[in-house]
Amino acid sequence: MTITPLTDGLVTIHRAGETYLGIVTYIPAKPVSTAALARENPGRGWIVNGGTVTPWRIAGVTQHEGRIVLYGDAVDARPLSEYLRLDWEHLLPYLARLADGFRVAEREGLEIGPAHTRSILFTGDGGILFLPAVLCAAIATQQSAGNRMEFSSVYTHPGRTDSQNRSFALAVMAYRGLTGEFPYTADEEDELRNLMRARPPMEAWLRNPEIRPEVSREIDAVLSPDGSDAMGADAWTERFRRWRHESVFRTVTDEERSEILARAAVAERRSGGAFRRREFWRKHWKRVVTIALVVALVGSVPGTIIRNRLQPRQTAGLPPTEVVRAFYGAINEFNHALMEDAVVDGAAREEIRMVTNLFVMSRMRMAVEMTSGFIDADEWRREGSPQIPEGAMPWGTALLDLEQVRAGEHEVVYLARFEMWMPGEPGAPGDSIGDTRPAPDSADATRVAARIAAQGFRRTERLWLRPDGDDWVIFQIHREEESMIDPAEFVREE
What we know:
five-stranded mixed sheet; 15 helices
């Protein structure tokens, strides 16, 4: 047997006077893997060309350079993964061809499974070679996590059928071709799957302002977690045909582009930060709860973690203005119990949950390092935003300004304007606000060392209060404005 590399992922095999096309599976060449792949081999794949389907005989399995190679009838072909590197103009015809291949395969009832970019090949005569679903699954299962992520996972939604996932894959490929980025990225498969389930990706037109918003919406609808537009291959065929005749791009000014990209940066930070917080608690909630319970049992956590609901509110007897001030001040003190006393009807639920979580984390760090790592944001700002000690960060509300909008016997409304400081993401733009020292050779804010992960927002919130027995309580909070604080505001020349 003679094996000759053909292209990335493909080889030519000469054996007993016959020539075969070999597909490198990227599975390590181990006897158990070879046996498993041979056991799942159904004996044929399919070549779809136009409206016809031709069997592709799978002759066997061999090894080459430490990896398993599946081989069958000689065909002039290239893997889908190779074409996905093309720019949009050159990629679009191949996406249209792939969608039409999916359409015919579905019509003929071929079991081709979800997209695996090394198991789908474009043939030189205009056809597409599909490996059978059972074989694709066996290959993906035995590949390394890295190869599985690259060739399969980024194109496969964990909660959809094979047919729906082929639509999802086409949307991912179109998104990447238009923006240069995958809609979902993660370091691990579990994180990637949870990300796909949890939130929609950044809208395509925010990543590339030249994309027409209506085109972006068509792609984004398929990628959204609810799969509200998991369209069939025939619809994708028509969509790609239309896009080949009608440009998917528009002209934008430099000013419009800058505004869109700035909006994208803020949206990415908000959605990414929320997802990472959920992931942290999904992975570690048992450990944190266990530690919190132990600490509570030895008396280190105030009794407010498990409170007696029969006790008077901490805000009892306070006028409405002081209830609002107490609510925002409690954030800085990690006093989630006071926050709960100040609200009813589920108001500020997410804020209270965040404060509770950070309270537990701060106590855990205090027990180990004798410091919580947080400094009061209001005190820090009123002192002129001095340099923050290494390893610390500002936390909570600052510079609170209240405006009474309406006062009545049964309802009072306020506008609250303030800054909110919270943990961010190390190394990301805007996260180095806490370190006010300029970089060694520049005062440019983009080069400030990200010594701590802190981010600040300017917010305007509207709060509604009403009497509850003898006490005033907040029953609704609506965030009306929010903007990220530019790190450049805290860079000082030396």
